[in-house]
Amino acid sequence: MTDPISSHRDGEVLVVVSNNPPVNALGQAVRAGLKREVEAGLADDSVKAIVIRCDGRTFFAGADITEFGKAPQGPSLPETLDAMEASDKPVVAAIHGTALGGGCEVALACHYRVAVPSAKLGLPEVKLGLIPGAAGTQRMPRLVGAEAALPLVVGGDPISAKKAQSIGLLDAIVGEDSLEADAVAFARSKIGQSVPRASEGTRNQDGVRDPDIFDKFRASQARKIRGFDAPNAAIEAVKAAGELPYAEGVKKERELFGKLMSGTQSAAMRHYFFAERAANKIDDVPADTPLIPIKRVGIIGAGTMGGGIGMNFLTAGIPVTILEMQQEALDRGAKTIRKNYENTAKRGRMTEDAVEKAMGLLKPTLDYSELADCDLVIEAVYENMDVKKQVFAKLDEVVKQGAILASNTSYLDIDEIATATKRPGYVVGMHFFSPANVMKLLEIVRGRETRHDVLATVMKLAKTIGKVAAVSGVCPGFIGNRMLSPRQQQANALIMEGANYWDIDDVLLEFGFPMGPFQMGDLAGVDIGWHRDPNRIETLRDALCAAGRWGQKVGKGFYDYDEARNRTPSDETRQIIADFAAKEGKPQREISKDEIRERLLYPMVDEGAKILDEKMAQRASDIDVVWINGYGWPLYTGGPMFWADTIGLKTVVEGLEKHGLPVSDYLRRKADAGERFNA
Ligand code: 3H9
């Protein structure tokens, strides 16, 4: 392997360069090379200053995550950085791309930091269930203050160069195309001066003067960090930076880092990091498959779903033609899109200019022929096979050859939809989740005849519009809804056997879901799809609807709601359920939360196993990606399949058997062989 670290001289300045594609991760060879070159520079009297920069697309994007969990190989990042910071010769970080995690810690250990305007800096370790482990939690608050450090260390989102300069993290912003020359000039201007060291900074005293900032910050993040271990450890570490001398603070950080690294949450979140990237790859579609240029997107349907889907493209700067049947529905759809953008602008997350720019790309129409020049048309109409086939037949007539025709169906057979066209190879499923402009998941449904270039194009497009994509084969409900179905069946069965419906919701909330199935039912509307005849009572839902319990929108569904939409269990609902169970002759018993959890979640794992066995998902981790991004499965468990691996497939099989539930052959085989779903 070639050495990733090299150096060259620019007069009395030594420029140390890393070249470790794709993201200059700080693996063993990079650490060793960095230490070697910096030590050589320090030992050489003719070197008066050092600049550290990276080749390729980015400054160091962090520690090499693939090394985590393996036996550590020296030199460690902390020792490499300590040697650097201890130098009396100025060391300057020259940053482009993303200086993340360990990369940002390299920059913090340098005496000065300069960056190009497009650079971003951040400490995203919490997103891997960790905290910074190379003194980032100690140097950062000393350099920028605890208050400014908290969102960086605890939230994990990177900040722009401009913002970094405003909080004192960057010393200068330099030319986008002259990073090395400007960094060398900067370093030269510091020769002979005493060097500032972040570890000796005192701005962390803001947290000592006002210790309330930590509790306030924790409270402000309560919803976002519920269930996650790392954010609390991150707050503790930043607090320690004010309370302890530097060396002890570093020790505290090490302790917290070590505990998180060996815990299940970080293992799960690291699994997810690679799962998300793997999901983007389709095994038999080569990475260099030519893409179909997408310059204009058509959307059929300007309702909640169609409008939300359209916003993704408008926001990304791709023109959208949106079609409706009636002028009124079209106007309403366009108005809703504008209102959504304006609300985003009011919250300061978009400029007025950007709102107008996005709206300027929207072309509403009632005329199918206006879709002729679209490169991709996404149908988002009513879930009915006949209607969808009519739409696709019409699209086949009017849309130019070579364009992609996609359906947003959530469970219908894409292959059957494709038969309505003479170009089944260009038909694909693009299943967005509601609200489509917000939810991250895009389930791509690969039909029997879907072409490689069509698949490659929609996968790339997913990234362009900020979605996380996963591919599913054609089966009822695809990956996500197919697995939701056994959970819902069990939830319904449990309440008929005597379980409290709020216990079912609470079990899922405690597990880490944002919402349980009955809360979800109330939110969506218990009356959705109801036949509207209060005298015809065949299902529990009929009984609830007949009693006017239509859901949150009318203040009562499964739960009663107050004005602030807080839910309380309802005696009336309880009675309706009991009456219904009696009518069905269902014996009642007390049901524990453990049984509820097992009966809700284990059948999902079993369904996931069947999906894998039938090759409807390419890999187990794709299923995890779907459930984390589309259905709120808690990230810190790694998704249903990784969670099953963690608790053991044998445990799942035994649990299913204990509750008299079916076990698929695939799951049983894997469990018997002591295997995992994820390698
Ligand atoms: C840390 O630093 C801990 C320290 O505090 C403690 C030290 C003691 N390692 O995302 P992309 C791979 S924790 C290994 O598609 P983009 C990635 O898997 C780390 N591999 O590109 C992919 O591989 P493949 C803190 C990594 O342009 C390829 O690179 N840092 C790493 O969309 C391209 O990645 C982070 O958490 C890594 N650190 O986005 C940053 N990073 O092609 C994590 C990437 O085989 N990284 N790979 O699928 C990122 O956020 C994005 O990769 C980045 C580029 C924004 C840099």
User: Could you tell me how far the N terminus lies from the C terminus, measured between alpha carbons in angstroms?
Assistant: 27 Å
Number of strands: 19
Overall mean confidence score, pLDDT: 96
Beta fraction of the residues?
5-15%
CA radius of gyration is 28 Å
User: Are any ligands bound, and if so which?
Assistant: (S)-3-Hydroxyhexanoyl-CoA
Kindly report the spatial arrangement of strands forming the biggest sheet.
12-11-10-13-14-15-16-17
User: What is the helix content?
Assistant: 40-55%
Q: Would you tell me the structural class of the helices and strands?
A: alpha/beta
Give the oligomeric state.
single chain
- What overall geometry do the principal axes of the alpha carbons give? globular
Largest sheet features:
8 strands, mixed
Low-confidence stretches: none
Number of helices: 29
